[in-house]
Design goal:
Elements lengths: L1 H12 L9 H7 L5 H16 L3 E3 L5 E3 L24 E8 L5 E5 L12 E3 L12 E10 L5 E10 L4 E9 L2 E6 L8 E2 L12 E9 L8 E10 L5 H9 L8 H13 L9 E2 L6 E4 L8 E9 L6 E10 L1 H4 L5 H9 L3 E3 L2 E3 L4 H7 L8 E10 L5 E11 L3 E4 H16 L12 H23 L9 E6 L5 E7 L3 H23 L6 E3 L5 H13 L10 H10 L6 H11 L4 E3 L23 H14 L8 H34 L6 E10 L2 E6 L5 E5 L8 E4 L4 E4 L5 E3 L3 E10 L4 E11 L32
Parallel strand pairs: 5-7, 13-20, 14-21
Antiparallel strand pairs: 1-2, 3-4, 3-6, 4-5, 6-7, 8-9, 8-11, 9-10, 11-12, 15-16, 16-19, 17-18, 19-20, 22-23, 24-25, 26-27, 26-32, 27-28, 29-30, 30-31, 32-33
């Protein structure tokens, strides 16, 4: 919406007949008379002024910046003199914590630096900055808070958002909203009680009129009532608005999609190879509605006379055919950048008419694909790659469970243990294809790990929902052989395509996973040695891989895997010529999921240009901007999924005070422990004061705390027994009571009651949850 408003405001104020007026008048003349729309216009104009696209004249009149525009005569604002002292001023992203103070991450800070480079901002030096805002700060020369640099906010350059979700209540005849997650320390005033028909305990969306600071309260208006707290679907709507996730597709986007449907007739043009007679299958989750990848595989004679070779075909939905560049459909797909997979719904990147029909590789239907054919030696070494447009017809849709059943039964048949695959009713060519796929996938997998690829054994826990979207239980997702088959083929195609684009001299969005910071790996080495493992320096990926293999069946594996994960950087999209550390790939991109990821679509378009013999004009700075955008959208989607999962888990636990469970310590801080339940994957907190000893020594390097009196010790990855103590869904906090160690430490002497959430320190990070083939 902001992008459309910016264009409308820019166009209106550049008209020759435009006369400077206030923002509210501009809103009226654009036909935006609703209160929330007027506020949106004010917000966008403020951003445009900061960006230098508009200026404020006398009496806050809005003026164009064009020097020769007629409206500037006699009204042009005097240029503000530049500040005399700009030394030690930096831009960065602000993060406010529950005490009211904050921290700023300066622009350009390496991700591997963690929070070590953050600048501390005292409560009375933060102005009205809010978490996520881009701010300009003045940095003091002398270190202050815990050795960090001290600074003060001198300007809020750009707001991360002005809209928040919370619970409405009334006090002293005033309407107030408690914003979810306690992002503000005090409730926000929203005007007269009953505005928009709101009732106490309703979940509402507010738009900030004035952000709170240490000297004044915040003020906002209610722009939407979502429904009563706890009603089915309200939690999901709250997260959608909180994270600014996209809603329904606009009329122009839907019209573009329908036009593509009208023009699609399954004909196979001269620019496509007809592969509809080949044996091609798809393997996806049982609940999948879109099928964006399919596989074919043949054994062929080696051209070098050295036995057989493999001809692997990875056929990916040709989304580029249905999403022309610079259309409303394309603009919307870029803005979304990714599909968002929430526990109870999917917010797609593309309209369902494309994602679930036209582009989906449905069985028995002619579908357009971008085919990557890789010729590999018998040992799995790539010897040739070809990428081209094709038309395919999948002959069978498999679920992962069906393929696992097939592989298990096939193994019994081969051993003569009375196994049978007759009930699967597979054609002979499909039976052979599945067997060959498994053989090649295991060859590729072994070769990849021999090259130094890493695999963390992190528990993949999915929550189960009832028909109303409420949690009914949980289960652990296992990485079975069928998943491994598809993963190996997708990785092989992504590497092959990235290498092809690099060799052609093209700039493209790579999937970059930078090397871990050597300092963190040295700390990790010391930590695992403290656990009793004899390791060389873990700065060697092979030593790290050896460690991960060694701990797979060890009770200390949780400690090791969590510590390794925390030492890694986050994978991002970037044009930088940097490899993927975890995959041990020196050149890698995303090619295999253009239905749900925009970077994949961009790669497809480059391949089309390459096949036409064209080298498009490219600017690397544009690719950096595109990569930042796609990475930010991906992280937003991950955070939204994680937060909604947390809300559903907390709601599930509200009536289960005292419930005991096993948990894993996932965070150790000087103020307490973060624990994630094993059966019910909720993250809770145990304050240091509830652990029994008078004083605990915190050791950052070993991720542990040790009591001075009884010597009780808690370490990252320890398995403990806890009980649910307090739950606050709105604040999104869960407190556990420590009952004892199961493995990894000494039995504690806990106090009788767990601490209140009011005493809690800043929340720790949840572990990331991997999406389907997200690598």
């Amino acid at each position: 919406m902001d992008a459309d408003l910016r264009v409308a405001i820019y166009t209106y104020t550049r008209q020759p007949a435009y006369t400077p007026v206030k923002p509210v008048v501009i809103a009226e003349r654009l036909g935006l008379i609703e209160e929330d729309r007027v506020l949106a216009v004010r917000r966008v104009i403020k951003k445009m002024v900061k960006a230098g696209e508009l200026e404020y004249g006398p009496n806050h009149l809005v003026m164009p910046t064009d020097e020769d525009h007629p409206s500037r005569e006699n009204l042009a604002p005097k240029k503000k003199p530049k500040p005399a002292d700009t030394a030690n001023q930096v831009l960065g992203t602000f993060r406010r914590v529950s005490t009211g103070e904050g921290f700023v991450r300066p622009e350009g800070t390496m991700a591997s630096a963690g929070r070590d480079e953050d600048v501390h901002i005292a409560k009375n030096a933060a102005l009205d900055a809010h978490t996520g805002d881009k701010v300009r700060i003045k940095v003091d020369k002398q270190p202050g808070y815990k050795g960090k640099s001290e600074g003060r906010v001198i300007d809020v350059v750009e707001r991360a958002t002005s809209r928040f979700v919370g619970t409405y209540f009334e006090r002293d005849d005033m309407g107030l909203v408690d914003v979810d997650g306690k992002v503000f320390t005090q409730p926000i005033y929203v005007g007269d009680p009953g505005a928009k028909g709101v009732k106490p305990d309703d979940k509402v969306v507010i738009d900030m009129v004035r952000f709170p600071s240490h000297t004044r309260d915040g003020e906002a208006v209610i722009v939407q009532v979502l429904g009563g707290k706890g009603e089915p679907g309200v939690d999901t709507m709250s997260i959608v608005y909180e994270f600014g996730l996209p809603g329904e597709f606009g009329d122009e986007v839907i019209a573009d999609a329908h036009q593509q449907a009208d023009e699609f007739d399954e004909s196979i043009g001269p620019d496509r190879r007809d592969l509809t007679g080949d044996t091609i299958i798809t393997i996806d989750p049982a609940t999948a509605r879109d099928f964006d990848d399919a596989i074919s595989l043949k054994r062929i004679e080696s051209r070098y006379g050295t036995g057989h070779h493999w001809l692997l075909g990875v056929h990916i939905a040709d989304v580029s055919h249905f999403v022309p560049e610079k259309t409303a459909l394309d603009n919307e797909a870029y803005n979304r950048a990714t599909s968002v997979y929430l526990p109870d719904t999917v917010i797609p990147m593309l309209p369902e008419i494309i994602s679930n029909n036209l582009a989906s590789l449905q069985p028995g239907k002619v579908r357009y694909a971008m085919t990557c054919v890789i010729e590999l030696s018998a040992e799995g070494v790539p010897v040739a790659v070809e990428v081209y447009k094709s038309a395919i017809k999948s002959c069978r849709r498999f679920t992962y469970e069906e393929v696992d059943e097939y592989l298990s039964a096939k193994n019994l048949v081969e051993r003569g243990d009375h196994g049978s695959i007759d009930h699967l009713k597979l054609a002979p060519e499909v039976d052979k294809l599945l067997g060959d796929m498994f053989e090649l996938a295991m060859i590729l997998r072994k070769r990849r790990f021999n090259a130094g690829a890493l695999e963390l054994s992190m528990p993949e826990v999915e929550i189960d929902l009832d028909d109303d979207g409420r949690m009914s239980g949980a289960h652990v997702e296992t990485n079975t052989e069928s998943h491994q088959m598809i993963e190996e083929f997708m990785l092989a195609a992504n590497i092959a395509v990235a290498t092809k684009l690099r060799d052609a001299g093209l700039i493209f969005l790579r999937r970059v996973h930078g090397d871990p910071d050597s300092r963190k790996l040295k700390t990790l080495t010391g930590f695992v040695r403290e656990l009793g493992f004899k390791v060389e320096s873990l700065e060697s990926r092979f030593e790290l891989q050896k460690l991960l293999d060694q701990v797979q069946s060890d009770p200390r594996r949780h400690a090791v895997n969590y510590a390794v994960l925390r030492s890694m950087q986050r994978a991002i999209y970037s044009p930088e010529d940097e490899g993927h550390y975890a995959l041990a790939a020196d050149c890698y991109c995303h090619f295999t999921s253009p239905i749900r990821r925009y970077p994949d679509l961009m790669v497809h378009r480059l391949l089309n240009q390459l096949n036409l013999g064209k080298k498009p004009p490219q600017k690397i700075e544009e690719y950096f901007a595109w990569g930042d955008h796609c990475s930010e959208r991906e992280q937003r989607a991950t955070n939204a999924e994680r937060e909604l999962t947390k809300v559903k888990l907390l709601t599930y636990l509200t009536d289960k005070i005292g419930l005991e469970m096993e948990g894993i310590i996932t965070g150790v801080e000087r103020f307490g422990l973060f624990v994630v339940g094993r059966e019910i994957p909720a993250e809770g907190f145990i304050h240091i004061s509830a652990l029994g000893d008078d004083y605990y020594k915190f050791d950052r390097d070993t991720h542990s705390i040790t009591g001075f009196q009884a010597g009780n010790a808690y370490r990252l990855g320890d398995i403990v027994r806890v009980a649910v103590a307090t739950v606050d869904v709105d604040a999104r906090t869960l407190d556990f009571k420590m009952l004892g160690h199961i493995s990894g430490g000494h039995a504690p002497r806990p106090k009788e009651d767990a601490t209140s959430h009011k005493d809690r320190k800043p929340k720790g990070k949840n572990k990331d949850r991997r999406k389907k083939r997200k690598r």
